[in-house]
Request: fold
Amino acid sequence: MSKDLIFLPVLMQVLLTIKQYILLLIAKKKAVAAEEVDLERRGLYDDAWPVSVIKINNSIRSQYEIPVLFYIVVGILWAINAVGPIVHTLAWIFVLSRVAHAYIHTGSNFVPHRLRFFSLGIYSVILLVILAIYRLVS
Reply:
């Protein structure tokens, strides 16, 4: 397996973020058309928008937290030639956990379910960091 294939889950994570932005644009247009928005406050205050928009916006914000660490550690693992089946598996686990997290976040937003997938993503990034550290010091 080519080490360069590690960038497929990275690109999938990027596409997830782009998809969330598209959903946000659609939700905002619908909210404005339905006159559900406080137009004077919309530029600075999230609560000027309906819950449907706030959920997507919050989900987008979460794409710039742990995923940033994922991008960094994948780049490090690739640069030090430490990409193998375990790294690929952990990377896909991370991305799939983020897809599930985003789906829940923008849908039911049931926090216990969201937390499970968030935790799975965190654990996979922690394991990737441990593998990078191990490879660097050995």
